[in-house]
Amino acid sequence: MKKIWKKIARVVLALGIGLIMALSSAKVKASTSSVIQKVKTKNCKKNVMPEEWNQKEIKAYQFDTEEATVYLLTGGIKYYNKNFKANNQLVKIMVMDDGYLNFSLECGGKSKIYFYDSNMKIKTQGTASEGIEYMTRVKAGDVFYTRIPKGQEAYLASWVLKDSFGKLSQNKTYIQKGTGSYTYHAFKVKDRALVSFEIDSVYQKGDTFVKIEKKKKGKWQKIGSTGKVKGGKSSDDQIYYALSGGEYRLCLKSPSSQAVSVSYEKESYKKKAVVYKKSKAKNIKNEDGTDEIYTQNEKASRWYKITVPSKKVRYVLNFESGTMTGGFDFTVYKKGRKKSIKTIKVRKFDEKMIKLPKGKSTYYIKVSKNGKSTNGYYGLSFFKWQNGN
User: Fold this and answer.
1) Are residues 133 and 19 in contact, defined by beta-carbon separation less than 8 angstroms?
2) pTM over 0.85
3) Average pLDDT per run of 10 along the chain, which is 389 residues long?
C-alpha cells in the first residue's frame, strides 16, 4: 500500500515539483525551516500561527489522481509544529466521500505513531522516523484518528480516491474495486510502443487477472498472455506488452473483496531503428548497450555488431529479456565464420552474460524471439569484464 503514495509523488515529480517525500531531504528541510521561521517572526507579536497549521480536524474529500496532486500541492499536506496541543495529541480525520482513503504521516523523533478507526482500534502503526501510510475502502461519514507525537514536527495528508475508472492516461494512478468479472479500461497507442503496468493489490486476499485486448475490425482480440497479481502483492512493473499502433483495453478481474491500484506507462520505439540484415548490423559501442521490442506480430530476426578493441582486456556481452511469456534467443557469430559460437536463451524476466575470448575481433549477434506469443523487450550491452581475465 506504500506504492500509492510513491505513485502520487512520481506524478508530481514529473511536473517538476517535489511532494511530501521530498520534505525529508536536507535542502527542503532547510527551506521549510526558513519559511516556518519567517512566519513565526511575522506572527510573534500576535502570538498566533497560520490557521492551516496544527489542525485538530481534517476533512478527506474524493479526487481523481490529477485532482489529488493539485490538492496536495495547495494545502492538502498539513503541517504540525512542536507547539501542537490537543486531547491526547489526537487529530480527527472525517471522510466526506465514498472511495479509498489514502493516509500518510511523517514525523520527527523516534516514538511510535498510529492510525486508528472511530473506536480507537489500531489500523496500522510504525515509527515516527519511517512514517506510516494506509489505504482502505471508506464511506462518507467514516471517522479515523491519528496521534501527533508531543513536541515533534509532522506532515500529514489524507484524501479519498475514486474506486473505479474508465480510460487510462499516463502519469496517473487509479483504483479499481473488484466485481468478480472483468472491468475494461481503454487506451490508445499511436505508434509501436512498450506499454507497462504497475498493479498493486490493496488487500491480502484475492488474486487479480490482467490481460490486454486489441480492437480489430470491430472486435476485441487478446494480445499475449494473461498475467496475475496475487493478493497482497505488487506486479513490480513486470506486466509488459509490446504493441503496434491501435486501440486497446486493459482487462482486470478481481473478486469483489479485492481492489487494485493501477498506473500505466508507455515508451515509443521507432521501427526504422531495427536492422534485419547482417550486412547492415547495428553497431553497439564499447561500454554501451541498446534495447528494442518485439510486438506479437513481428517475426524477423534482428542483427547487431560489436568490436573488441583490445588484445589484453576481456569483454563480456550481457543479454536481457522482459516478456510475460516466451523469451529471446541471442546467437553470437565471430566475423569470418558461418557457424555460431554460442546461442544464449533468455526467458521471461531474466538476464544472462557471456565472456568473449581475448583478442581483437568483431562479433555479430542475431536476436530472435522464441514462441509465437512472445512480445516484450530485450536488451544487449557490451563492456569490460571486471576481473579483466
Assistant:
1) no
2) no
3) 44 39 44 47 56 92 83 90 93 95 90 95 92 91 96 93 89 89 96 92 91 95 90 80 95 94 92 93 93 93 94 91 92 94 94 92 96 91 77
